[in-house]
Amino acid sequence: MTGQSLERTVSIRTFHGEDAGATDYSEPLPVEAMRVEGVVERDKDVIYWEQGDPDNPHNWSNGRKWVVSLIGILMVSNSTFASSLPAGAMSYIRKDLDITSQEISSLTISIFLVGYVVGPIFFAPVSEFYGRRHVSIVAFLWYSIMSIGCALAPNIGALLAFRFLAGTGASAPLSVAGAQMADLWDDPVKRGRLMAVFCACTMVGPTLAPFIGGYISETQLGWRMTFWIGFIIAAISFIPLVLFCPETYAPILLLRRAERIRAEGDIHAVAPLELDDRDLKRILATTITRPFRMFWQESIVFFTSMFLSLLYGTFYLSFQSFPMIYQDIYGFTPGTVGFFFLPLAVGAGLACAVGIAWDSYCHRRQKQNPNVPLSPEFCRLPIALIGGLAYCTSLFWQAWTAREDVHYAIPALSGIPFGFGFSLVFLAFMNYLTDAYEIYAASALAAASMCRSFLGAAFPLFGKTMYDRLTIPWASSLLAFAALGMSFIPILFIRYGGKIRAGSRFCQFLLERKRIQHEEEQARSASGAASRAPSFKGLALEKEAV
């Protein structure tokens, strides 16, 4: 459980500037000069995971991993379900709260997504300071309480305020669940398959909500019961979160083990996390700025964010366009309009199956040629190309079939390639960013999340004006042409992604990190000390990952 004393393991001084790659790997440093806030002394022993350690989340049983992962997916589904919950009740909210502008009422969705922009900036770093479990519980409890506020809101101002606060709390699962999966699953194949289920469930939530909310609003229960339903579902989901979702973040688990060992009398035990300066302000400053820097400096992050943002914005714009099509053209009630979102969920399920099948194919191909590693571009992006084309097709399909002389089932079926394409592109690029940036994936994903949530909030605000001025066929076609242009991004990355990563400071740092770890593994094997604790050089690299 304990490694060598630091007197024997610390021999390399490693600097990491705020930017990746600002590293000095060679300057030796005497042990006597080491100082980490008075915690680490020469006689301290570093706690680390033993081979096959049962407390290491990577070594938990598959059943336990799946339970924790599915709870995380349940939390995310709650979050996305709440994002579109008012969509089916919009006309009733306007009438009851005396709202004359459709743009104002659409803010009930947009302001929730603004919470998605704000929340991850803080929840991601805090989860690595206090652990995933505490952040998940506190944030989800906050979201649940704010849902009650939405149900009781006396006016539109109060409703919007509570929706923003609820969205902030609901953003935590989106930030923490992905990191939680990385904590549990070190096998990229299994993680990729789980991500396929994750992406499908994130689509199911917002497609079911308008259907449920619309029908409830038409009854005597009224639109407020829509938010009560959201609270009830959240309260039920909160139970397994508290009872069956343990801490998964390895540095926190090692910290607790070190504290327990010290409490039992071994005062020399220290966790790797205690070797770092655990200053929350510093962590927040680094992690808040890094996503913005990666967005502007990393071509992969920038263009991925643009593609996902267009899809996300178009998806939330559908909560404006579907009522225009199925209420205004075909004469359905608000409750019935929610039914037409269900084909999107069918498409998401198909995308999940395709994603798992493609992942299995790549796994088999890699096993046949183990000495020739497959690139992240090959493993992830071909399905993004398929998804992008399916998404464009769905928009053109809906644009030119949504008219009175065409049966409503025809435009409704366009929702299947819509959900299929959206989920497939989302799945592909989420995995691609994770594979390309590894320890920096959280920052890359945060950049993409903030960008797409921002556009998801903005699109519904101008949706009605755009459809009124351009008409449904041309407004939808405009979005389709934009998506068609974005569909070339996977092709460019497949062709040039390797060169782009080779020129990335972040990716260069990752290559150097792997080289150092490989050299250390060879050195330990040569000395017959394969089970020893990692050297401080490797440990410092791991600290930079946070």
TrEMBL record:
Q: Which domain of life is it from?
A: Eukaryota
An example Gene Ontology molecular-function term: transmembrane transporter activity
Location of the region described as Disordered in the Swiss-Prot/TrEMBL record: 522-546
The protein depicted here goes by the name (Perigord truffle) hypothetical protein
Membrane topology per record? Multi-pass membrane protein
Its subcellular locations are:
Membrane
Family per record: Belongs to the major facilitator superfamily.
Pfam families xrefs? MFS_1
Renumbered to this chain, the Low complexity biased-composition regions fall at 524-535
